[in-house]
């Protein structure tokens, strides 16, 4: 699945500069195209957000059952916390059980996406990440598919969680034609909160960075005309 023409040595040298880089054409083109199509059509995304300092997740069905007053109350609390630099709201999909009794197109595409999940912890991928980062302790990946649409964001934070073994965060872009004015940028910061540069979502580009980098996903504007789709997560080592 990885693009065989990647120059891993050159990528490793680039990564040394600031322990982050963007890898263009990371997957083979047909694999990336199929993953994008499956995410757009078949993934049962759930909405993830922080409410009263607690992680919440609701399926599309659960969100649909909320009345307008409940939705507004959730948004009010989420945005109030965000004004203090805390929280997020976006859609995600973690690996879950497929209904193998149904040979539907949706199940086939989900099965393919689950293969991509598993592939990220394969020896081929882990070997490549070890070569790029110089870290031989990497043991696996913790991925999820994500979708950011208007009103979604992820405030400034670090990905370091004690006991989880996270070493490198990654965002594999599955979005085409994203305009920077739409928001949804992977924004990096100095330790004091001063903004550094920001990376625009790009198709089949792997953004890879050490978890010591402070970052956010900027607010997706109401006029964003596309979905910000990606496969995100962490390459991990034993804690």
Account of the 3D structure:
With 239 residues, the chain is an alpha+beta fold. It has a single domain, classed as Jelly Rolls (Sandwich). 30% of the residues lie in helices and 32% in strands. Strands 1, 2, 3, 4, 5, 6, 7, 8, 9, 10, 11 and 12 form a twelve-stranded antiparallel sheet that branches. Strand 8 (186-189) and strand 9 form a beta hairpin. Helix 1 packs across helix 6 (123-133) and helix 2 packs across helix 5. The two termini are 28 Å apart. The mean pLDDT is 94.
| CATH classification class | Mainly Beta
Rg is 18 Å
Quickly count the helices: 6
Indicate the overall shape. globular
Strand content: 25-35%
Q: Would you identify the CATH H-level superfamily? A: q2cbj1_9rhob like domain
**Number of extended strands:** 12
Structural class: alpha+beta
Q: The CATH topology is what?
A: Jelly Rolls
Helix percent band: 25-40%
Examine the secondary-structure arrangement and name the CATH architecture.
Sandwich
Let me know the average pLDDT: 94
Total number of domains: 1
Q: What gap, in angstroms, lies between the N and C termini?
A: 28 Å
SSE order in H/E notation? HEHEEHHEHHEEEEEEEE
The major pleated sheet works out as:
12 strands, antiparallel
Write the layout of secondary structure elements.
Layout: H1 8-18, E1 20-24, H2 29-41, E2 46-51, E3 54-59, H3 60-65, H4 68-82, E4 88-93, H5 105-119, H6 123-133, E5 138-148, E6 153-157, E7 166-173, E8 186-189, E9 195-199, E10 205-210, E11 214-217, E12 228-237
Antiparallel strand pairs: 1-10, 2-3, 2-4, 4-5, 4-6, 5-12, 6-11, 7-10, 7-12, 8-9, 8-11
């Amino acid at each position: 699945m990885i693009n065989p023409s990647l120059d891993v040595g050159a990528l490793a040298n680039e990564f040394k500069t600031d322990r982050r880089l963007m890898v263009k054409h990371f997957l083979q083109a047909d694999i990336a195209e199929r993953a994008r199509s499956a995410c757009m059509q078949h993934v049962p995304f759930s909405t993830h957000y922080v409410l009263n300092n607690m992680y919440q997740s609701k399926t599309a069905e659960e969100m649909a059952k909320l009345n307008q007053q409940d939705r507004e109350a959730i948004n009010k609390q989420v945005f109030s916390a965000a004004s203090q630099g805390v929280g997020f709201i976006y859609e995600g999909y973690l690996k879950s059980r497929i209904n193998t009794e149904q040979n539907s197109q949706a199940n086939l595409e989900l099965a393919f996406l689950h293969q991509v999940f598993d592939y990220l912890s394969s020896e081929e991928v882990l070997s490549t990440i070890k070569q790029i980062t110089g870290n031989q302790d990497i043991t696996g990946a913790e991925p999820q598919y994500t979708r950011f649409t208007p009103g979604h964001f992820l405030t400034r934070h670090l990905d370091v969680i004690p006991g989880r073994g996270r070493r490198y965060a990654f965002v594999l872009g599955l979005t085409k034609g994203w305009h920077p004015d739409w928001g949804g940028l992977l924004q990096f910061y100095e330790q004091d909160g001063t903004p550094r540069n920001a990376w625009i979502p790009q198709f089949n580009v792997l953004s890879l960075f050490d978890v010591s980098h402070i970052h956010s996903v900027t607010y997706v504007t109401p006029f964003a005309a596309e979905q910000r789709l990606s496969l995100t997560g962490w390459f991990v080592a034993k804690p």
